[in-house]
Amino acid sequence: MKPSRELRQPATDVTVWERAAAHYRRIAGRDRRPGVKIWASDRAAECAANMRRAQREAA
C-alpha cells in the first residue's frame, strides 16, 4: 500500500466496526463455500450493530 501524504486520524470505535463490517461483507460476497458465506454475513451484521451502538454512544 502506498503511504498517504495526509496524516491519518486516530481510529474511533465507529470506524473500527465500520471497517470490520466491510471486511466480512467482502468475504461473504467473494467466498464460494456456503458455510463461510453464512458465517461472514452474520458477522457483518453483528459488526454493523456494534457500529450503530458505538455511534449512539459517541453522540
Descriptive key words:
73% helix, 59 residues, mainly alpha
Question: What secondary-structure arrangement, pairings included, does this model have?
Answer:
Elements (H helix, E strand, L loop, with lengths): L12 H18 L3 H25 L1
Describe the protein's architecture and organization:
The protein is mainly alpha-helical. The protein has one domain (13-58). It is 73% helix and 0% strand. The protein contains 2 helices and no strands. Helix 1 (13-30) packs antiparallel against helix 2. The model has no long low-confidence stretch (mean pLDDT 90).
Total DSSP helices: 2
C-alpha-based Rg, rounded = 14 Å
Major sheet summary line: none
SSE ordering: HH
Low-confidence stretches: none
Question: What value does the average pLDDT take?
Answer: 90
Total strand segments: 0
Number of domains: 1
Terminal CA distance reads 33 Å
Shape: flat
Would you tell me the structural class of the helices and strands? mainly alpha
